[in-house]
Amino acid sequence: MIRARRRFMAILFLTAWMGFPGTSRAIQLPPTREVKLPNGALLILAEKHDVPLIALRVSVRGGSIADPTGKEGVASITAGLLRKGAGKRSAQEIAALADGLGAYLYVGSGAELSYLSAGFMSRDLTVMLDLIADVLRRPTFPQDEFEKLRSQTVDEIASAKDDPSSVLPDYADAFFYADHPYARPTDGDEATNKSLTREDVLSYYKENYGGDRLIISVVGDFSSAAMESKIRAKLGDWAKVSEPWPKAPPAERHPGRRVLLVDKPDATQSYFWIGNLGVARTDPDRIPLSVVNTAYGGRFTSILNTALRIEGGLTYGARVSAPRYVQAGTWAIVSYTKTESTEKAVDMALQTLESLRSGGIPDTTLTSAKTYMIGQYPTTLETGNAIANAYADLAFYGQTREELERYTDRVAAVTVEDAKRVLARVTPPSSDLTFVFVGNAAAIRKVVSKYGPVTEIPITEPMLSKLRVGRK
Q1: Number of structural domains, the chain?
Q2: Rounded to the nearest 5°, which phi and psi values hold at 405?
Q3: Which of 177, 202, 271, 361 is deepest in the core (most CB within 10 A)?
Q4: Distance between terminal CA atoms of the chain?
Q5: Cα separation of 144 and 137, whole Å?
Q6: CA–CA separation, 258 and 452 (whole Å)
Q7: ∠ CA(444), CA(298), CA(344), 5° rounding?
Q8: Mean pLDDT, to the nearest integer, of 389-405?
Q9: Domain of 315?
Q10: Least confident of 85-89, 101-105, 346-350, 467-471
């Protein structure tokens, strides 16, 4: 009787969260006005007057996929130097100006784009737009700042190897993608960064920064007409780049099994990545797959984490990693365990994957995962900064705002049959898996060899030179 009552209450709770048939869970976002500037820049404006703040995001199409072979990391160094001197201001003066206004100004680079992100009081719009225009259009790339950032980057890459979880994704991408542009880590490695010169940065900037590469997304307390006029004046006459922005070719699945073992002799734990090719950002099955990923390895109570952590006691965390780009990203199981339990943890992870592919996801588990996703989603779009970033990303990937506004409805509509379809299509069979391990090779070499032919490299050596990642 008690169990029946609990089950009834659970179903009632889930129904209340999910909504009754016909109930819309659409997210309400500020309307946008899109303008194409004469130089090709896309301007996205969204007024939001609840607080006197403005969030601005500039995405520059390009990123690390445009890094020349042997110069991996130059996109990241170039972006990092933008605020280290621009116009007549030094790095210290740029920082002092932003801090003095209580504003923020961040720059960075990813696989397919570089970016500038800023947030400030609406009253400071004029001075901040002046600063942003200088940072984007008139960086000075001081030699001393270049040398300092390059040295810091080399040190950070080397020190990151003390935490295998932070470098595991880079080793996995480099090994899995091989000669594909997605193989190259955004920051490069120690050797590629040491080879960089200021002239390399100047060349990258000239070839990848210009008006036609820009997506400018602004959200906040402003007049759209006035904002358009100001941005036209600051960025509208920026010349186009001579070459089209680089795009990665389609990636391919890897048949069969293979293993990369990254030797870290002092490791007391084994970190592992097991996967194959996933899907692109705009894949038609992106929503059902997200639900499947959440149920299987996207939250604390997921199938994978329950098996390895809660029931198995083999790890503090197990999850699914599934990045999505213009082309397909990877889909992988990621976890870690004590060195002596490496085989047991990996075998258990593989068992959960086989069970998932053969048995699917139970309806109650799928419903719970959808409820979790619907509950979490609104918090991802609470701030102007989050909305500005989301609008810029939509434009970059060629999606519409409906992707955001109808997301929760589409999550709720995912069925058990949808889950079965994407499981069969996307999740890899046990015969077609790439394994990447970071750990004590002497202790786990024999264990990992049972999963496929092993390539072994030392963690102390630069990653790209050891894996011979090139560019087609």
Answers
A1: 2
A2: -70, -30
A3: 271
A4: 66
A5: 20
A6: 5
A7: 25
A8: 96
A9: 258-467
A10: 467-471
Q: Return d(Cα 81, Cα 205) in angstroms, integer.
A: 11
3-state secondary structure of 3: helix
At 276, is the secondary structure helix, strand, or coil? strand
How many helices (H) and strands (E) would you count in the chain?
Answer: 19, 14
Q: What value does the mean pLDDT take over residues 325-330? A: 97
At residue 409, the 3 state secondary structure works out as helix
Please indicate, yes or no, if residue 294 is contained in any of the structural domains: yes
Three-state DSSP at 86 gives strand
8 found inside a domain: no
**Do residues 330 and 322 touch, judged by C-beta distance below 8 A?**
yes
CATH label of the domain that carries residue 95? 3.30.830.10
Domain contains 450: yes
15-24, 249-258, 433-442: the lowest-pLDDT one: 15-24
For residues 71 and 207, the answer to whether their CB atoms sit within 8 Å is no
CA-CA-CA-CA torsion for 204, 207, 209, 215, nearest 10 degrees? Answer: -120
Write the CB contacts of 174 (distance below 8 Å, at least 6 apart in sequence): 183, 184, 185, 463, 464, 467, 469
User: What value does the mean pLDDT take over residues 260-276?
Assistant: 98
| CA nearest to 106, candidates 63, 227, 137, 114 | 114
Q: Are residues 217 and 273 in the same domain?
A: no
CA dist 214 and 237 (Å) reads 12
On whether the CB atoms of residues 295 and 362 are closer than 8 A, the answer is no
Q: Give the separation between CA 387 and CA 274, rounded to whole angstroms.
A: 33
Mean pLDDT score of the chain: 93
| Whole-Å CA distances, 260 to 218, 277, 341, 457, 463 | 44, 16, 18, 8, 12
pLDDT of residue 19: 41
State the CB neighbour count (10 A cutoff) for residue 39.
Answer: 17
Q: Evaluate whether 467 touches 457 at the Cβ level (below 8 Å).
A: yes
Kindly state whether residue 12 falls inside one of the protein's structural domains: no
Contact 322, 169 (CB under 8 A): no
Give the H or E element holding residue 275. strand 269-277
pLDDT (tens digit per residue) in 65-84: 999 999 999 999 999 999 99
Model confidence pLDDT, tens digit, residues 162-213: 999 999 999 999 999 999 999 999 999 999 999 999 999 999 999 999 999 9
* Co-location of 290 and 152 in the same domain: no
214 and 264 assigned to the same domain: no
Work out the percent of the chain whose per-residue pLDDT is above 90.
91
